[in-house]
Amino acid sequence: MTLRYKPMPSDLAARYRRREPDAYGLTPELHVSDGDGMPCRHCLANIAAGDPYLILAYRPFPALQPYAETGPIFLHAQECEAYGGGEAVPPILTTSKDYLLRGYGADDRIVYGSGAVTPVDELAVRAVELLERPEIAYVHVRSARNNCYQCRIERA
Fold it and tell me: Smallest Cα–Cα separation from 144: which of 94, 112, 101?
């Protein structure tokens, strides 16, 4: 199975850069990166030291419902190219020893029993295992320590 790693949609990233309200209705906060652990959810690369970035509340789901988690993310404050690496593991997923992978159904709800903290070198294998299950439509990659959303994995 071929995987596709998907970033935040470009149209949504553009809205946040225009300082339109985030998932909580707040204006994204502007900061300057110290270069340590600020992964942009659009280009899926780390934000370099000295670069401006936004912190905002992000809900990677199309509608409100009990399983539509919302949490903090980072985003380059200036335009960056959307991650287009397809099946290549994004740079932001090489900066930790492990991540939480969790499957979601076509109804955008968690598929119980699918979540597991997964070593970084086993991400692709675990994502394939999850996506082979017919009830799983896509997988979220989240921080294993803070549960922050990183990106989405789908069948290519």
Answer: 101
**Whether the Cβ atoms of residue 65 and residue 73 lie closer than 8 Å to each other:** no
What 3-state class would DSSP assign to 15?
helix
Which element (helix H / strand E) includes 131? helix 123-131
Could you count the other beta carbons within 10 Å of the beta carbon of residue 105? 16
Would you write out the chain's pLDDT as a tens digit for each of its 156 residues?
999 999 999 999 999 999 999 999 999 999 999 988 899 999 999 999 999 999 999 999 999 999 999 999 999 999 999 999 777 899 999 989 999 999 999 999 999 999 999 999 999 999 999 999 999 999 999 999 999 999 999 999
Rg, Å, the chain Cα set: 15
Polymer length in residues for the chain: 156
CA distances from 51 to 10, 12, 39, 44, 47 (A): 19, 20, 12, 15, 7
Enter the pTM of the model: 0.93
